[in-house]
Every structure is written in C-alpha cells, then in structure tokens.
C-alpha cells in the first residue's frame, strides 16, 4: 500500500552458507584453470618463446594469486575463522585472489579508487596553481602558468581530449619543479594514490616505489606498442588506463584507445618525463563521480 516501504526478506543462515560455499568453490575452480594455463605459459617461456602482453599478464596475475591463496586459505581451514574473512578482505583487499572477487565487490572497489583519484586530481591541480613565483617568471616567452590553468579548466569542463602539441608546450613550464626528486611529501603521496600504491613511508621510499611502478609501466608500454594497441579488448583498455592514472569508468572504447595511444606517443616517442605525463592525465579525470 502507499506509504509502506517494501521489506526485502532476509536470507536464512543456511542459504547464505550455501551461497558462500558456491562462491569459494567457483573461486578455487577458476584458480585451478588459471594455474593450468600458467603452467603452459611457463613451459612456453622455458623453450625461449616470447609471450604476448595478454599471456604475460595472465601468467603474472596467476602467480600473484597463488601467493595470496596461502593466507587466504587459512580462513577456510581453521574452524570458525571464516567469520573473520570479511574483516580480512576489508582491511587487506589486495590480498584476496582475483578469482574470488565478485562483481559487486569489484565495482565498489573501482568506484572507491575513482573517488580517491578525484581527490588526488584536485590536490595536484592546486599544487600546480601554487607554483613558486620564480617558475612564473621563467615562463616569459612561453605559455604562462596562468594560461595552463585556464587550459586545464577548459578541457575538464568540455571533456574534450587534450591535444598532444599543447601538452608538450605546457610541460616545459614544470620540467624542473614537477620531478620526483623535487617533489615534496604531499605531492609524492598524491602520485602514489594515483597509481594505487600505499602512500606510507619516507620520501625516499615513496620515490623508490614510484620509480619501480613507473619502470613497470614503461615496460608494459613497450609491450603494447609491440603487439599493437588495436589488439586490446575494451576491458584491457580500461585496466591499462587505470594503471596509468587515467579515467576508465564511463568512457567509450574509442576514447580509451585515444588516451592510451596518446600516452604511448608522449612516453615512448616524445620521451616526456613520466611524472609530468602522470600530471597531464589529471586532465582526463572529472570533477565529480559519475
């Protein structure tokens, strides 16, 4: 009747138990199938045959899942420990094998990552707006910092992609200040969040893990360029864009392919410093969560 809320009946303890058992059964089953594929890929590498990017990512993901399964399986072996599993997953979401993650959990994780990136983007934009006066003075004869700020605002409001030529021009303004060695702690923390790294530790440690992640990304860039960006599926494009600090949620496949292609061009062909390249990706993040 009007005015009454629809009450959804709560599932019984037995029904929830059966659903959990099915969930973990399918998780272990998928992990076993991934292990069989990874074993074939290992022997393929053993024979000296190069793996494609898709095969390499499949292999590394399965190896990582096998490493996570040891602490994860303890909750299923020890009696009554399974009741602590939700708290374990909540505190350490990255330690759960990928084959056990359901769609609802994955969607919430991706939205939470996007929220963090939006906050990070606002901070980085504010940091660039508050560059020292010396930087603005040295920009005489070039595009000014004020022009760059207006350029960023215009792009974020219109949603149009940034031209490669404009990014190269404006990058000269920040080539000295916006490097890992010159960044202060808050900026290093922001970049770590942008790349889904734990922002905990000293400045030297943050720089170290950022350099390691950037080195991994560059190696992946070369593999994408070798295999061809057109070989990537829509899901692979989303994963690749997220790994590089770019927006992937709610984007068309053509837009994902364009921004990843631009990244490869700036990173491998124009050799733009990766720290500046990451800052340019902030332009593709919206002001609000869609």
Automatic annotation (TrEMBL):
GO terms for molecular function: ribosome binding. Residues 112-290 form the Letm1 RBD domain. It comes from the Eukaryota. It is found in: Mitochondrion inner membrane. GO terms for cellular component: mitochondrial inner membrane. Keywords: Membrane, Mitochondrion, Mitochondrion inner membrane, Transmembrane, Transmembrane helix. It holds the Pfam family LETM1_RBD. It is a single-pass membrane protein. The chain crosses the membrane at residues 63-89. PANTHER family: LEUCINE ZIPPER-EF-HAND CONTAINING TRANSMEMBRANE PROTEIN, MITOCHONDRIAL PROTON_CALCIUM EXCHANGER PROTEIN. This is Letm1 RBD domain-containing protein.
């Amino acid at each position: 009747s009007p005015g009454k809320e629809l009450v959804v009946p709560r599932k019984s303890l037995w029904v929830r138990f059966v659903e959990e058992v099915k969930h973990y059964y399918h998780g272990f089953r998928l992990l076993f199938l991934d292990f069989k594929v990874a074993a074939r890929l290992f022997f393929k590498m053993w024979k000296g045959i190069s793996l494609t990017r898709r095969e390499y990512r499949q292999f590394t993901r399965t190896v990582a899942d096998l490493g996570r399964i040891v602490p994860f399986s303890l909750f299923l072996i020890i009696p009554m420990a399974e009741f602590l599993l939700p708290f374990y997953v909540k505190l350490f979401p990255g330690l759960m094998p990928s084959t056990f993650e359901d769609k609802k959990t994955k969607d919430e994780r991706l939205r939470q990552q996007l929220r963090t990136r939006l906050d990070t983007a606002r901070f980085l934009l504010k940091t660039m707006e508050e560059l020292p006066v010396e930087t603005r003075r040295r920009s005489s004869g070039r595009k000014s910092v004020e022009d760059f700020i207006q350029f960023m605002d215009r792009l974020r409001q219109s949603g149009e992609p940034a031209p490669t030529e404009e990014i190269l021009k404006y990058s000269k303004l920040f080539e000295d200040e916006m490097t890992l060695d010159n960044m202060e702690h808050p900026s290093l923390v922001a970049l770590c969040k942008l790349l889904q790294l734990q922002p905990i530790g000293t400045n030297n440690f943050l720089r170290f893990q950022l350099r390691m992640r950037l080195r991994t990304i560059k190696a992946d860039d070369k593999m994408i360029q070798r295999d061809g960006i057109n070989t990537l599926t829509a899901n692979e494009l989303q994963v690749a864009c997220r790994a590089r600090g770019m927006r992937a949620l709610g984007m068309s496949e053509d837009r994902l392919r364009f921004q990843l292609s631009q990244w490869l061009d700036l990173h491998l062909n124009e050799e733009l410093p990766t720290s500046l390249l990451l800052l340019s990706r902030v332009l593709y993040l919206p002001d609000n969560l869609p």
